[in-house]
Amino acid sequence: MTTINAATYPIHFDEKAYNELTSLVSKKNYSSVFILVDDNTLEHCYPRFMQLFATVKPIEVIQIDAGEIHKNIETCMGVWNVMTELGADRKSLLITLGGGVITDLGGFVASTFKRGIDFVNIPTTLLSMVDASVGGKTGVDLGVLKNQIGVFANPEMIVIDAEYLHTVSAREIRSGTAEIIKYGMTHDIQLFNEIKDNDQVNIVDLIHRSIEIKNEVVIEDPKEQGVRKVLNWGHTIGHGVESYFLENPKKEALTHGEAIAIGMVCEAYLSSKVLGFPKEKVSEIKEAIIKIYGKVTIDKDDFQSIIELMKHDKKNVAGEINFVLLNDYEDFKINCKASEELINESLAFYNA
Ligand code: GLY
Questions:
Q1: CA distance linking residue 2 with residue 275, whole number of Å
Q2: Phi-psi region of 207 (alpha: psi -120 to 50; beta: other; left: phi over 0)
Q3: Rounded CA gap, 152 and 93, in Å?
């Protein structure tokens, strides 16, 4: 797979990416190398990483607990403390090896430690390969509110090695697939059709195309002042649903992708009401999403709480919920509004 060049860093693919990483480490002459892992990636991904990455620099492994509930400032404190105890300095490198929690949190830890040290992302889940690790967003959650604290900071390099996908569950793969579907609906419908119409897909091709799309959007609008908001298609309602299921002890937490998939169905409904997105495509999206993700029951009594959570979305301005909606596939509009009544209807549409 060909290297994709982001604004300030390359995204390398496959085993040759480790040679590039080795060259980077010797060229930059880092004083030490830290690797951030969680329990899962330490066991399942770190051995492969060590086999393929060759360096004479001292390497320190820092392990955190796996899971979104640990994506918070307390975990960052732990990592900053360990780095300090181990003598990290401004010429240290932090390599993040893991899913979105590790790459988002690790990027934030690195970009704030001693006012910023270099970091390299090695995403190991589909979600982090096609979205979280690319584009310079770093940060942590504030309670159940996702990614409320963070900074834009670019890694020195991203290594995409699809072999790590063998270490994650089918549910995790489905979660990442939702982001690929997102790029399909907004930029390249072939991605959605490929997933919708086939049981077996060439995942490496889908990853490469997804990153190409995300990278083009981020190059145009790195700080999300405008067009980058398109990457939140399905996420406004999706994040509300995700946070609600996370904070409610009576509900089983959803993966990010499962929640975003629900969000895409609801926002397709809003698109048809607000912008005239074709109704048959709304039905096509609902059918495909339910086929892939199954049906989640969202009680009518849950709707208002979900809408309240949506009011914390970072894209909102002056308390108004801000949506990306579709005129048609590959034809989106940012900064759209929808009444609470319509949002309620869209959740009811998903439920029906
Ligand atoms: N995950 C959305 C973005 O990176 O902008």
A1: 38
A2: alpha
A3: 18
Please tell me if the CB atom of residue 231 comes closer than 6 angstroms to any atom of ligand 1: yes
Tell me which of 131, 182, 324 to substitute to probe ligand 1's pocket, judged by most ligand atoms within 8 Å of the beta carbon. 131
Q: Whose structure tokens read 């709480």?
A: 305
Report the alpha-carbon angle 231-169-141, nearest 5: 45
- Ordered by where they begin, the domains of the chain are 4-168 (3.40.50.1970), 171-351 (1.20.1090.10)
Say if ligand 1 is within 6 A of residue 135 CB: yes
Q: Which DSSP symbol is given to 250?
A: T
Q: Are 161 and 15 in contact (CB under 8 A)?
A: yes
Whether the CB of 150 sits within 6 Å of ligand 1: no
* pTM (predicted TM-score): 0.95
239 lines ligand 1 (CB under 6 A): no
**Which residue, 98, 100, 83, 104, is CA-closest to 150?**
104
Strand duo 59-64 + 331-336: pairing: unpaired
Beta strands in the chain (DSSP E): 4-5, 10-13, 32-38, 59-64, 92-98, 118-123, 137-142, 145-152, 157-160, 323-328, 331-336
Strands 118-123, 92-98: parallel, antiparallel or unpaired by DSSP? parallel
Q: Is the CB of 104 under 6 A from ligand 1?
A: no
Confidence of residue 132 (pLDDT cuts 50, 70, 90): very high
**Cα 211 from Cα 150, distance rounded (Å):** 22
How many residues does the structure list for the chain? 352
Q: How far apart are CA 344 and CA 351, in angstroms?
A: 11
Ligand 1: centre distance to CA 276 (Å):
26
pLDDT tens digits, 218-273? 999 999 999 999 999 999 999 999 989 988 899 998 999 999 999 999 999 999 99
